[in-house]
Amino acid sequence: MAAAQGPNLAVVVHRAGDLRLENRPIPEPGPNEVLLKMHSVGICGSDVHYWQHGRIGDFVVKKPMVLGHEASGTVLKVGSSVTHLKPGDRVAIEPGAPREVDEFCKIGRYNLSPTIFFCATPPDDGNLCRYYKHNASFCYKLPDNITFEEGALIEPLSVGIHACRRAGVTLGSKVFICGAGPIGLVTLLIAKAMGAAQVIITDLSASRLEKAKEIGADFTLVVKKETPQELASKVQGLLGCMPEITVECTGAQDCIQAGIYATHSGGTLVLVGMGQEMVTIPIVNAAVREVDIRGIFRYCNTWPMAISLLASKRVNVKPLVTHRFPLEQALEAFETTKKGVGVKVMLKCDPSDQNP
């Protein structure tokens, strides 16, 4: 088996505002685990949030935590019980791995398991480092025609898959997406792949909507000072009808309100964006028009579908990566993400291979 070489450089948040590059011990994989040489790790809004605020809701950074959960790498070492992977395999990592087979695992909704391990969610360390061990069942072999970066982008892509599945996107669907950040954009890609006939996407940023147009949005709308009702009627005007499905990717109160007003009676609104714990919404409007409001929490059972979509070239995520930094420049990469320039910032963890 190939040996891990050199120090295990990691990006670690200590508390709000305190982000450091430090060396960690190289872990030893357990019987059902694999040791990975990390290659590409995307920076997510949640990583930036933990750095800036030291918490997200009830998840609080109480001890130093390695960030990163959008990742791919190469197997270096396999645990004694692992049979489906071998050293040298290139894999994409599903960051949420259940610790026990509870009722949620039994019904296939393991993402809801209260004891799930999840990379870079306190107190669990993430994989923004040189060497990382993970549950082998949640490492998926990548075909040769999928790059490491595409493998890392399966994580955000999975949010789009889970959201579109929960929304019931199908052939001919008309879909309204609020927010053209990375999650809004992957939701757009997946909605189109699942057969949506027309997708309209809104955002405050014209440049993000340019990117949306580039990857297949039928209509884009820059949000200015409209009331939620006005925004809903503009969406209807552009689409020529009310969308049956709305996917809300911002978490902003006004957008959730607009999502309810915009959705066709009998349609579905899926809430993806995380915002304030308490929001005011026109619930009676939704109730009397039978608009179903659904939530999502991360994803489950999405990696195999995502790998198929990427391998068959049905979905192209490559345009989403706008910035790349070597791991040594992680602090600069985080500043870039915080500023909101570009779409997806990718960190390259392997000093001997900085290719996509």
Structural commentary:
Helices cover 28% and strands 26% of the residues. The protein has 356 residues and is an alpha/beta fold. α3 crosses α4 (182-193), α3 packs across α9 (303-311) and α6 crosses α7. The protein starts with 7 loop residues before the first strand and ends in an 8-residue tail after the last strand. The model has no long low-confidence stretch (mean pLDDT 97).
How are the secondary structure elements laid out?
Blueprint lengths: L7 E8 L2 E7 L8 E10 L2 H9 L1 E2 L2 E2 L4 E2 L3 E9 L11 E4 L2 E2 L5 H4 L10 E2 L12 E5 L3 E3 L6 H20 L6 E5 L3 H12 L4 E6 L2 H9 L4 E4 L5 H12 L5 E4 L4 H10 L5 E4 L11 H6 L3 E4 L7 H9 L9 E6 L3 H10 L4 E5 L8
Measured as a percent range, the helix fraction is 25-40%
Number of strands: 20
Q: Alpha-carbon distance between the termini?
A: 25 Å
Low-confidence stretches: none
- Describe the global form: globular
Q: From the alpha carbons, calculate the radius of gyration and give it in angstroms.
A: 20 Å
What's the story with the biggest beta sheet? 7 strands, mixed
Mean pLDDT: 97
Number of helices: 10
The H-and-E topology, N to C, reads as: EEEHEEEEEEHEEEHEHEHEHEHEHEHEHE
Determine the strand fraction and express it as a percent band: 25-35%
Broad structural category: alpha/beta
